[in-house]
Automatic annotation (TrEMBL), chain B:
This is ABC transporter permease. InterPro entries: BPD_transp_1_N (IPR045621), MetI-like (IPR000515), MetI-like_sf (IPR035906). Residues 95-300 form the ABC transmembrane type-1 domain. It comes from Teichococcus vastitatis. Pfam families: BPD_transp_1 (PF00528), BPD_transp_1_N (PF19300). CDD domains: TM_PBP2. The chain crosses the membrane at residues 9-30, 99-122, 134-157, 177-197, 235-261, 281-307.
Amino acid sequence: MPASGPGARVTMLQRRSLMSLAAGAALAIPSLARPALSQGAASRALRFVPQANLANFDPIWGTQYVVRNAGMMVWDTLYGVDAKFAPQRQMVDSEEVSGDGLTWTFKLRSGLRFHDGSPVLAKDAVASLNRWAVRDPMGQMIRAIQNELVVVDDNTFRWSLKQPYPKMLLALAKTNSPCSFVMPERIAKTDPFQQITEFVGSGPFRFVREEWVPGARAVFAKFDGYVPRDEAPDWMAGGKRVMVDRVEWVVMPDPATAAAALQNGEVDWWENPIADLVPVLRRSRNLNVDIADPLGNVGSFRMNHLHKPFSDPRARRAVLMALSQEDYMRALVGDETDLFKLMPSFFTPGTPLYTEQGGEILKGERNYDGAKRLLQEAGYTGEPITLLVAQDQPITKAFGDVSADLLKRIGMNVDFVATDWGTVGSRRASKAPPSQGGWHIFHTWHAGADCINPASYTAMRANGDQAWFGWPNNSAVEAARDSWFAAPDLAAEKAAVAEMNRLAMEDALWGPTGFFMSYQAWRKNVEGVVKAPIPFFWNVTKS
Amino acid sequence: MFAYIIRRILATIPVMAVVALFVFSLLYLAPGDPAAVIAGDQATPADVERIRAGLGLDRPFLVRFGEWTWNIIRGDLGVSIFTNLPVSRMIAQRIEPTLSLMVITLFLAVIIAVPMGVVAAWKSGGWIDRAVMAFAVLGFSVPVFVVGYVLAYYFALGLDWFPVQGYTPISQGFGPWLSNLVLPAVALSSAYIALIARITRATMLEVLQQDYIRTARAKGAGQRTILFLHALKNAAVPIVTVIGIGVALLIGGAVITESVFAIPGLGRLTIDAILRRDYPVIQGVVLLFSFVYVLVNLLIDLSYTLFDPRIRY
């Protein structure tokens, strides 16, 4: 095992130097000495292994979580949620809402600067919100009822609506991608379906573009001009104080390599170690291993409502009657029972709106005979069921294997399409019959942070052609969703979500395959790592 | 000879054109959609469609192929769909690690495998021969990534002699550069050493039966002179051919090795591009690999003249 501690690190470097020198002597090459890297320099750079490659860097154009996470470092938001999911002011100094709830007036904090030194003005916020609102589900709702979004003065802007929108602050504070990041006006005017070409941020870190090697490395340097809030840090809210000079994202496609690099002190923090390697990491006395995101993920068994047999709700209910969440979860995390929960619900367990209303179909003994009968009633006669399984994603691969077994148990004829995620991403958009390039079932998972309420929970939309892949069509579910948006208080929100869950279960909108979490691991000389849906780099120190 | 070189270089143009057409068509027909990857899992089908249109991926095959070909003729490999960076710049960022890995691997393979093969042939049937052949079978049988993990476990995690992963540009010092490449190069060269050692042994065995070797012995030439001056030089043509063919093997092996050791080279760039369906990058990298392969073949053909004076172009 590698030596530990700062002193040991020096020893290691010296040994490597010796090795290099020895090799150099053998090859008759003048010098192989390693460059001196002072302890100070090493401790001022935090080396982080992200969940995926940062292949592009426009968090509005591309809404992958890894882009959102990097975006969170570079661009600040008007509001940010805290650990209680409550929106808190971030770039905004104060807001005022008219008595009828139709006019929101926002005043920006003073002293805010972009990374090019220019001040953050109301026109920048307005342009950024305009771009964000085209892509974000909540933003689209606001746009649909918008009168105007205008600059009042350099620090003030006003959003006037045709009808009240009580979730305004949540929309501007949420963690779901895309977040309402504030960019300079000239950049924010870019078409939201085109990628930006300049990365001038407003957040606590500056993106070091010249050091960006997509697929390998991304560097974020501390932005000295950033003015943090005075409040204590709390997720996206509070004072974002940067305690290191730079954060280096080191992309490692191979989990075993990342584990070894972390043990060896070549990186400091790994966002998502796979469950298989966690016992190895736990054995290292230099590492901390803990749950990464308490909001975890919700697994999804997505059915296509356009084609038989799943165009009939009885066939979809048949699947839910037989679906064992425990099978899916154990296929994914093995015996790490702390990492999963069974959830007869569509919403994230442990969050304020969690409900099991209507979830009986997922509880208790699995009813294979009942499922077979229901399938017969639905007119299923043994036609092949096209199950798309992305083999390059451990989660979807595990889910796909369990589903193949489940479908066979209830008498379905499975056409198991083993493919990659890129192909699933493309094929799932096809509305063609499964025999002509379409599909019946695919698996994915949703970040638990996206499933705490209906705000950005696109998988819960049931508006037919406009809905997410699978295209459920259920006006009652949509009405329950609307009632959540209009809910004046928590009690009303809970009632709306409970009704939505009941209706969605009744219609078997899709199949939740369970709630699961993952670990993160970091070296013990790193402090300030928090459990959150996003890795937050402010207030993290490295000794 | 100069005219021959020019002819061969000109002959690469139709080869590259066929490769370009083949790769473009294959990617066009292959399933997958970069717009879906960019949009993210929560995006609606309408969002994906608009991003696809924004990228120009909804245009007909011929229009896209024509535009791409015209750009290639002008020396422009295009722009990555994802990073918005020129493909040529992305390749330039990645070429040094891959080139370094391949050069060190080739160097290691040749200096180890050729003497191994020569000695095995010389001591044919003895324990040295059997040991070399056993090593060759092992080298072929054990996948590169397994060798990589074992090396990393013992020499990086255990003995702490080398880093587990990463790459240091040579501009930051020869020592760090070499330190990062030793383990990946050893891992990658294992199969290559096995291949060259076997071919060298087989060819040397044949050559050592020739009359001129007997003559050399009769003239009192020393064993070393016979093996390395008379026999090896005459066995060189097939060995050099295999080394050349092995470059293709190295390109494939580099993809795996770069992933295991987190080296930011062309292999990883290719894999990432394929998984994301970053068409311009895939096309650019495949064209580059094809060109390198054609060039290596040309160099091998030319090298024959050094070893066999009967060959003239």
